[in-house]
Write a structure and sequence with these properties.
Elements lengths: L1 H13 L2 E2 L6 E2 L4 H25 L4 H12 L2 E4 L12 E5 L2 E4 L16 H9 L3 H14 L9 H29 L4 E3 L3 E3 L8 E5 L7 E7 L5 E5 L1 H4 L4 E5 L2 H6 L3 H6 L3 E4 L10 E6 L2 E6 L3 E2 L4 E3 L3 E8 L5 H4 L10 H34 L15 H15 L8 H17 L14 E2 L13 E4 L6 E12 L2 E3 L33 H9 L3 H12 L4 E5 L2 E5 L3 H12 L2 E6 L3 E6 L2 E11 L7 E7 L5 E7 L1 H6 L8 H13 L2 E11 L1 H15 L5 H12 L4 E12 L3 H10 L3 E5 L4 H10 L7 E5 H17 L21 E7 H7 L4 H11 L17 H16 L3 E5 L3 H15 L3 E5 L5 H6 L2 E5 L6 H4 L3 E3 L4 H39 L12 H11 L1 H10 L5 H6 L5 H5 L5 H26 L13 H23 L5 H21 L2 H6 L9 H6 L2 H28 L3 H7 L1 H13 L16 E2 ...
Parallel strand pairs: 19-31, 19-35, 29-38, 31-34, 32-33, 33-34, 35-36, 36-37
Antiparallel strand pairs: 1-2, 3-12, 4-5, 6-7, 8-17, 9-15, 9-17, 10-11, 10-16, 12-13, 13-14, 18-37, 20-21, 20-30, 22-23, 24-25, 25-26, 26-27, 27-28, 28-29, 29-30
Helix pairs in contact: 1-3, 2-3, 4-6, 5-6, 6-31, 11-12, 11-30, 13-30, 13-32, 15-16, 19-20, 21-30, 23-24, 23-26, 26-27, 30-32, 30-35, 30-36, 31-37, 32-37, 35-36, 35-40, 36-37, 36-40
Length: 1257
């Protein structure tokens, strides 16, 4: 009894559970998972004790059912709203206040309303440290004793920053509000709005309606309650999905009276974010019926091709799966962001130190001079220490511009502009699909210029994922080369004429006329059996339209095979729950389908068991050669010749499938059918049980032949990879395909070359074992925490490449379940470490980490890395390893749902809108249609964005240091009294009006060389990878540059003002004139400095520089006028100062001298750098015209082909999608429409529609 109880407890603890509060699935090992497991166990134990006390019998089945019931805690009663408000379904909200745990259907996607916008937005903005800092400063400026600047000098910039950000947030929220208030209604015996719907309501939906909640499909106007939905809003896929109702609800719930009387009780899992799973039961009229995801219509989907559907609301509002998936994603930050934040913190520390030093200076000055000077007596009885304390806060206020308030807003504006440039780039626009490039984020643009590693998917990313049937081998004979009907090889390709076949797809191309002749003659039974298998063994759905047949396939491979069979005379016409109808060379035949054994990525094959019209039972199977050959009968013929053909096909980069069959006796099928039915209703491990049953029947197969499908590389892939490699970007291919396929594609796209030494998983494992053994033998050399220079794994000269499978990856990284369990037990002290030091198993977590570091070091020594047969989780793990141990900037690119993990894990994720839906695009940061656009995204937009941002930040810090530190020098001559050197309004407007526009335009428009030269010289990308243009070295250069300029701006006017006399005989050496001269010198210096930094001049840049200077003088003369002084006498105190000071030629000469001395060292240093130590960019700029002429000549030349077929080694593939097909749907018998009464003659418009068509059925 105890043994059974313990096993069930362990099983409970190992299962993912739905969190009661959030609805998210909790993985084993999670703290919340453990807590919820304990609560489930306490519940079951209570029931167990009760049962034991009553019956003195322990039944493990009862405990299992109790655990199931505890997880199925969500109960929904049809047509009974009061039921869901019973006390048992209420949850505590606050203190004793309770409300129903069932959410209403009203949701709020906007954040603000009229009353909450201002307080909530301000709260969010003041969570930023910089904004909060300036708010504190504003409060300090209100205190009279420490206020060295008027309050408006901080308030105006702060209001502008908050206002710009607030307007942006408001616009975003208005967009969400308008989308939320779209008129969406449907019927529940009466028309009501979505927001009034509740759990348990029975609803009626019409064609093209959006589904308003997560609804259990009850019935529809289609036969067998089939309902077609489009899930583009949910997962981005545009192809139609099939949903179906239970047979019992389909038969009994068709009219409105029956729906109104429906009173079933649904017990299911609690709300969670799993879009791919649903589990529950329906209790109706005393019977229980299982429910799964095929019965659910999820919110956000759209009803298609179904006139009317009826359903029961299961989850509403915030409980729906789409809303549960609306949680926050991981916020990605750039390296420059992190560096910029640290530098702002450094500036803040510097500000405190400077303010403290000057406060101490004031303390000593007041003690020695200030307290003894009668003319400085202010009537306050304050000692020197207290005055020093006040001066500290006074200098914090006076020097606050050292911390740039407008920095973050300016950075956001620049990033927004750079994102728009990516969106507007016509050279990244794919005309065939009308798909432009899209920057889905505005925060990562400059990181595109620092990429070191690219992790790419293969199928659909490097290849087109558009499959074409090219060749085949049947009964040992290969077909597909250009030949005549008699088998004579043709020198010129002549496509087959399909006019003899009224069902043929005219876009299908085939060049071997002998195969067509063989089929039409009917002499070769193997050929006929080959194409009969292709037309019968699949999960393709068919729809009859006016213009022909439309196929909906689970994968492009399967669609290509069925289309090939159709062209060769074996046309798949229709299917029902237990039959398949095909046309065999003008003769229509119907086969009874006894079982459909669907494909999955573990089985790598699919089978169908059919009953022929003559009573024979036959199994047809197609799958990967590796799994098919293991299951062939010893009597099977043509194994060697087919294997040779497979090698040839693989060397030509074709994806292969082996086809075979098996005749089954009636007795054998009956015995197997019983086992199959038992496995179908298994309560636990149903998939494993089915796989075991499938293995029994899929044995002793007879080989027919093999198919070869071409998945072409996308245009420009080899050239793009070559360019990125020249930019020192390493490319890793992470694919689910087999090793031979991946290696083949590696050669075809120039990732692998003949001069590379390729290392496979076995070699890698051996090298890592040697390194680990050395570490154990020399523990003193490899002490924990001690970093030793890593020895090279490949000391021999030459290029290396790594090809490793997912299985070896688990073995190498200790990710197998058994190894993880050993480590966990050792960590808990329940398992001793291995006594044998040569044991290859990890002794502890440190050894596991060192093993991972070794693997990453080895892989990074290689020019190319290909990981094949990897799962989506492994893809993400590989990316995270490189990020963790190499501290490198990574980019992942893919096109399918299996790439989402690595796209989200990498620093930057790029989605390709290909043939596998839009999941990758929806999870990405950038999206476009072709892999070749990655070259332009990185080498042009990424590099430009990085250069612009670095230049902007360097200059921004410089101009603020030069501006603020003048106060520091002035303090030495003002008794450290925290008096400012400029006019108050100049301090207020400096960053807003006088110096912001030129640097903003440099951050938006500057470029060292044009886009064509950026692509021609990939080495220009290297400074970004090295972080050479913005780091702490550049920061301190900007700091010292600012210190130098502030010294010049202060001391040259100071010296000029000593003992001078103006033309009118009056001395101009007053404070106001001095402030005007220093301010004017600063404005000229910073605007001319940015002119020296500008590489790409436009009219806008020129206008910004001259306009900023003009704005300065215009505003200055206005605020120094007598008229404004009369209106605001206490605010504008520099009356007439500008006109009096600037009419003195002597002061103009002082300004010119100051600006000249400030800029002269910069000019000299730039000249020396470009003359003596020129960078790659400087050399290209110097010879720009020459290179542009070469580019024009190169464009006229034709490009040579990048790849030649026919390699030496075996690199085969198998043509299957790595996801389940439609077998479950087909075998259920409710996925098929009624067969048309008459079928006309189809013209040339008969075609196959790709998987991603917007609406196929």
């Amino acid at each position: 009894m105890l043994q059974g109880w313990r096993k069930l407890i362990e099983r409970c603890l190992e299962r993912p559970l739905a969190c009661h509060s959030s609805g998210q699935l909790l993985a084993p090992g999670d703290k919340k998972h453990s807590a919820q497991s304990e609560s489930l166990l306490s519940c079951t134990c209570s029931i167990l004790l009760l049962q034991s006390s009553c019956h003195n019998v322990f039944r493990p089945q009862t405990l299992s059912r109790c655990m199931y019931r505890c997880e199925m805690a969500w109960k929904v009663k049809a047509n009974d709203r009061p039921y869901h408000h019973l006390p048992e379904f209420k949850k505590k909200v606050f203190l004793c206040i309770k409300k129903s745990r069932y959410s209403g259907n009203a949701i709020k996607t906007y954040k603000y309303n009229v009353l909450t916008f201002l307080p909530l937005n301000l709260y969010e903005q003041f969570k930023r440290v910089a904004n909060l800092y300036f708010l504190v400063l504003l409060i300090l400026q209100i205190i009279p004793d420490i206020a060295t600047l008027p309050w408006y000098t901080t308030l105006i910039p702060l209001v502008v920053v908050l206002g710009v950000t607030g307007i942006k947030d408001l616009v975003d929220d208005l967009v969400r509000l308008l989308s939320f208030r779209k008129d969406k209604t449907l019927f529940i015996h009466r028309e009501i709005a979505w927001r009034d719907m509740q759990v348990g309501d029975v609803v009626r939906m019409k064609k093209n309606d959006f589904i308003p909640a997560d609804i259990l499909l009850l019935s529809s106007s289609n036969p067998n309650s089939l309902c077609y939905v489009e899930t583009a809003e949910l997962d981005g896929e545009t192809n139609l999905k099939f949903k179906l109702g239970l047979r019992v609800t389909d038969e009994r719930l068709q009219d409105e009276r029956q729906l109104a009387e429906f009173n079933a009780l649904i017990e299911c899992e609690e709300p969670n974010n799993r879009l791919d799973k649903f589990m529950g039961t329906m209790l109706y009229e005393g019977k229980r019926y299982p429910l799964d995801l095929d019965n659910m219509l999820l919110r956000g989907c759209k009803i298609r091709n179904t006139e009317v559907s009826h359903g029961l609301v299961i989850f509403a509002g915030a409980d729906t799966k789409i809303m549960k998936n609306g949680g926050k994603t991981r916020f990605k930050r750039t390296k420059i962001d992190e560096l910029m934040n640290y530098m702002v913190y450094s500036i803040f520390v510097l500000l405190i130190l400077v303010a403290a030093g000057l406060a101490i200076g004031h303390t000593y000055w007041y003690e020695a001079i200030g307290s003894k000077a009668w003319y400085l007596f202010d009537g306050k009885k304050q000692d020197s220490s207290y005055r020093g304390f006040l001066m500290f806060w006074g200098y914090i206020i006076a020097l606050n511009t050292m911390v740039p308030i407008s920095l973050y807003v300016s950075v956001e504006v620049i990033r927004l502009g750079q994102s728009k440039f990516i969106n507007w780039d016509l050279q990244m626009y794919f005309l065939e699909k009308d798909t432009p490039a899209k920057a889905r984020t505005t925060t990562l643009n400059e990181q595109l210029g620092q990429i070191e590693y690219i992790f790419s998917d293969k199928t659909g990313t490097l290849t087109q994922n558009i499959m074409q049937f090219k060749k085949c081998t049947i009964a040992g004979r290969s077909y597909g080369e250009p030949t005549t009907a008699a088998g004579v090889v043709l020198e010129r390709v002549r496509p087959v004429d399909w006019s003899w076949n009224q069902y043929a797809d005219r876009s299908f191309q085939f060049v071997d006329h002998s195969l067509v002749e063989c089929i039409r003659s009917g002499k070769d039974k193997d050929v006929n059996e080959f194409f009969k298998l292709l037309s019968l063994c699949h999960t393709v759905m068919v729809e009859h339209k006016d213009d022909g047949l439309v196929y909906q396939a689970a994968s492009p491979d399967e669609g290509a095979l069925v289309t090939a069979a159709r062209n060769f005379g074996y046309v798949f016409l229709s299917r029902t729950q237990d039959t398949i109808t095909i046309k065999e060379m003008e003769e229509e035949r119907t086969y009874e389908m006894l079982a459909l054994l669907d494909f999955n990525s573990d089985r790598k094959r699919m089978s169908i068991i059919l009953k022929f019209p003559d009573g024979r039972i036959r199994l047809y199977c197609k799958g990967a050669d590796t799994v098919i050959y293991e299951r062939l009968s010893p009597k099977s013929r043509h194994k060697e010749t087919t294997q040779t053909a497979l090698d040839i096909f693989a060397n030509a980069t074709l994806r292969t499938l082996c086809l075979c069959y098996k005749d089954i006796s009636a007795d054998e099928y009956e015995a197997w059918s019983e086992l199959h039915q038992e496995a179908q209703v298994a309560m636990s491990d149903r998939d494993a049980a089915l796989d075991r049953v499938y293995e029994q029947i899929e044995s002793n197969l007879m080989l027919i032949g093999a198919t070869a499908i071409e998945d072409k590389l996308q245009d420009g892939v080899p050239e793009t990879i070559a360019k990125l490699a020249m930019a020192d970007i390493k490319i890793w291919v992470l694919t689910g395909d087999k090793k031979e396929t991946a290696e083949n594609i590696g050669y075809s796209c120039s990732l692998l070359t003949d001069d590379m030494q390729i290392h496979y998983g076995e070699d890698v494992n051996d090298k890592l074992k040697v390194r680990q053994a050395n570490r154990r033998l020399e523990p003193a050399t490899y002490r924990r925490g001690k970093k030793k220079p890593a020895e090279a794994f490949f000391p021999e000269p030459g290029k290396n490449a790594l090809i490793i499978t997912g299985g070896w990856l688990n073995e190498i990284l200790y990710e197998k379940k058994k190894k993880r369990r050993r480590l966990r037990l050792r960590r808990l002290g329940k398992r001793p470490p291995p006594s044998n030091p040569q044991d290859c198993q990890p002794m502890d977590d440190w050894e596991k980490e060192m093993r991972q570091i070794d693997f990453v070091d080895m892989a990074c020594e290689c020019e190319a890395v290909i990981c094949c047969r990897v799962t989506p989780k492994q893809k993400g793990n590989v990316v995270s390893l490189v990020k963790k141990y190499k501290k490198a900037v990574t980019l992942s690119i893919g096109d399918g749902a299996n790439d989402v993990n690595m796209i989200k894990t990498a620093d930057i994720g790029v989605g390709i809108s290909g043939q596998e839906g839009m999941q990758a695009v929806m999870s990405s940061d950038y999206a476009f249609a072709q892999f070749r656009y990655l070259e332009r995204l990185l080498l042009v937009h990424g590099r430009w964005s990085y250069i612009r941002m670095c230049k902007f930040l360097r200059y921004f810090f410089f101009k603020n240091f030069a501006f603020t530190l003048v106060h520091f020098w002035y303090s030495f001559f003002s008794g450290y009294s925290s008096q400012v050197a400029y006019e108050d309004w100049f301090i207020t407007l400096y960053n807003l009006c006088y110096s912001s526009l030129p640097v903003l335009l440099v951050g938006l428009l500057d470029q060292d060389v044009n886009d064509k030269l950026s692509l021609k010289f990939p080495k220009l990308y290297l400074p970004g990878q090295q972080g050479a243009l913005f780091n702490y070295k550049n920061f301190f250069i900007s700091l010292f540059h600012g210190i130098f300029v502030s010294l010049v701006i202060f001391f040259i006017p100071y010296g000029a003002f000593l003992q001078t006399m103006g033309q009118d005989g009056e001395a101009p050496s007053d404070y106001q004139s001095f402030a005007i001269v220093t301010a004017s010198s600063l404005i000229f210096t910073v605007n001319l400095q940015i002119s020296l930094e500008t590489s790409y001049w436009t009219f806008v840049n020129c206008f910004a520089v001259l306009g900023s200077i003009a704005i300065y003088f215009g505003i200055m003369f206005d605020i120094h006028s007598a008229g404004i002084h009369v209106i605001f006498p206490s605010v504008f105190t520099f009356t007439g100062a500008a006109s009096n000071a600037l009419r003195q030629p002597y002061l103009w000469l002082t300004i010119i001298l100051t600006v000249g001395i400030s800029l002269l060292p910069v000019i000299c240093i730039q000249f020396l750098h470009k003359s003596i130590w020129p960078s790659v960019g400087d050399k290209i700029q110097r010879n720009r015209k020459k290179y542009e002429m070469e580019l024009l000549q190169e464009e006229k030349k034709k490009k040579a082909p990048a790849f030649e077929r026919g390699r030496r080694s075996r690199r085969s593939a198998y043509a299957f999608s790595h996801s389940r097909g439609y077998a479950d749907l087909i075998s259920s018998g409710r996925s098929i429409r009624r067969r048309p009464a008459a079928r006309g003659i189809f013209q040339e418009s008969i075609r196959e529609v790709p998987q991603t068509a917007a609406e196929n059925i």
